[in-house]
Amino acid sequence: MLLYDRVMKTPTATTTSESRLLRIQEAAAIVGLTARSIRYYEAIGLLAPAARSEGDYRLYDEDDIERLTFIKGLRDDAGFSLADIAQLLEDKQARRRNRDRLQVIRDPMRRAAILTESIDRLDRQVATLQTKVERLVAMVRATEDRRSRLVEQRDEILGTASQDGALSEDGAPSEASTR
């Protein structure tokens, strides 16, 4: 099968036997997303398909599956917005670019500037993650507070009911109170 390079959109010699490429429905099933979600992620720039078949079908490789899994985890498990995810993915790509640039650049000032840029990106990531952690901690505290109020209400009801003889010794409603 003739495939098309993701960046150049030109035919390549790669065949599915060299590297297993998946159609969108297969990729969606593996990751636990819908094909529509994957198309949307492509439309907003979170993902580019690995290749296109002769029939212009989207084809995905292992890296794409890994990226989709990462996106889904950030969205579903960590509650990140797609904008936050896009920024995290861009930062990840920038780190790779900077790592490559550091290997070829010898000028100390340019190297320092690249490292400063990387540090700034990591500081932004830490701030984003810290904000998320703070929101989650606040949600946990609010839930614990609601639970405490319910326990107090229950205990108050049980205390009143046991004083009235409506509860048996084990805290269950007595036969007299259910009649």
Kindly estimate the percentage of residues that lie in beta strands according to DSSP. Answer: 5-15%
Q: Please state how the strands of the largest beta sheet are arranged side by side.
A: 2-1-4-5-3
Shape: elongated
The first-to-last residue Cα distance is: 78 Å
Plain-language structure description:
With 179 residues, the chain is α+β, with helices and mostly antiparallel strands. It folds into two domains: 1-77, Multidrug-efflux Transporter Regulator, Chain: A, Domain 2 (Orthogonal Bundle), CATH 1.10.1660.10; 79-179. Helices cover 63% and strands 7% of the residues. The chain has five helices and five strands; from the N terminus they run βββααββααα. The protein has helices spanning 24-31, 35-43, 62-77, 82-104, 108-163, and strands spanning 3-5, 11-12, 22-23, 51-52, 58-60. The protein has a five-stranded antiparallel sheet with strand order 2-1-4-5-3. β4 (51-52) and β5 form a beta hairpin. α4 (82-104) packs antiparallel against α5. The N and C termini lie far apart (78 Å). 11% of the residues are buried. Residues 1-17 have low confidence and may be disordered.
What is this structure's SSE topology?
Blueprint: E1 3-5, E2 11-12, E3 22-23, H1 24-31, H2 35-43, E4 51-52, E5 58-60, H3 62-77, H4 82-104, H5 108-163
Key terms:
elongated; 5 helices; alpha+beta; 2 domains; Multidrug-efflux Transporter Regulator, Chain: A, Domain 2; 179 residues; five-stranded antiparallel beta sheet; 63% helix
